[in-house]
Fold this protein.
Amino acid sequence: MSGHGSGRPAGGGAPGGTSTRAREVWAEATDGFNRWVAGDPAGLDDLVGVMTPVLWHVVRSYRLPESAAEDVIQTTWLALVRRRAAIVDAVAIGGWLTTTARREAWRVAQGDGRALPVADDELEPRIPAQRSAEEAAVEQDEGDRLWSAVDGLPERCRRLLRIVAFENRPDYRELASDLGMPVGSIGPTRGRCLAKLRVALMQTGHGTDGHHRGGERA
Amino acid sequence: MSELSRDALLGIVRDVWERHDPVPEHLVTSMQAVAALAASDLDVELMELVEQASELAGARGSSSYTLRFVHGDTDLLLRVAVDGDRSRVDGWVVPPEPMTVRALPEQTPARHAAVVTDTGRFELTDLPLGLLRLRLEPHDATRPAFATPTFEI
């Protein structure tokens, strides 16, 4: 488990699906936290190693520039160290970290005047980025088709699905307040976003043969 | 046509983002350093930074600056000199007191530690650039260790 999560290259999707891998990450985080609290500094190393990639994707979903995202993640780790004594439930450490990171990302994004979508009409599709003919041709590549499907989602869907994909069962109540949405709307919104993605994937010719895992192409 | 399951869709979302917006290579390592440094603050008393002054950059990308920290009756003056990708720290403890000064994190404690001389001086050489803090351990065992806050070279 040494080096786990440390700059692991993209596309290393575990075969077990999102929830299995997220659960594993959360379990490793809890284990690292427990060892650190018990006096083993390597436990903190492992906790940071396994959760920093998750925090990256959660924070970047707020469209922060790389340097601002790194600052948010650093703030999150400093908060953990400072408030360690207040964290009683080691099992919930992953959720504590992602929630803290989301709040800070939200705060920074708003402070920047980087307006975040709040209205439901944000569910309208984004205007697709302009592509040159060459780019369109190259897009035959499977990975690019997947990307254009995800990239073409409405902003709120992009953010919500990215967060949900990397978090292990995010707390909807906190997620709702962080995303500026009514609590009751998160579940339905997620369902609609998944449906939109399903349609987008079919439109790009993906998923029609039951072969759907981008990570298995290699 | 098989309908993609929720987990399969979220798996695609994750694969796509890992490929298109990967975690920067240095990020995990630097966050581990940040957390370890912050954690090492937990068990020592912190000195306070009271002065910081930079000097004119010298030739060949070298530069230096001074920092002054205070803790109780102890003053710590540091002159940090950067030359290329290495740095050195010349320190002066006032009043002089026998103590060991270590650069944290202690990956190579033998190399980056020094004992303060009778006149209160010490030097740490060949330090890597990056985040650094110094931990001062009085040889008088009744005196607790104290440390500077983290500063960046």
Notes: Chain B has one domain: 41-152. Chain B has two helices and eleven strands. Chain B touches chain A at residues 1-32, 34-36, 38-39, 41-42 (CB under 8 Å).
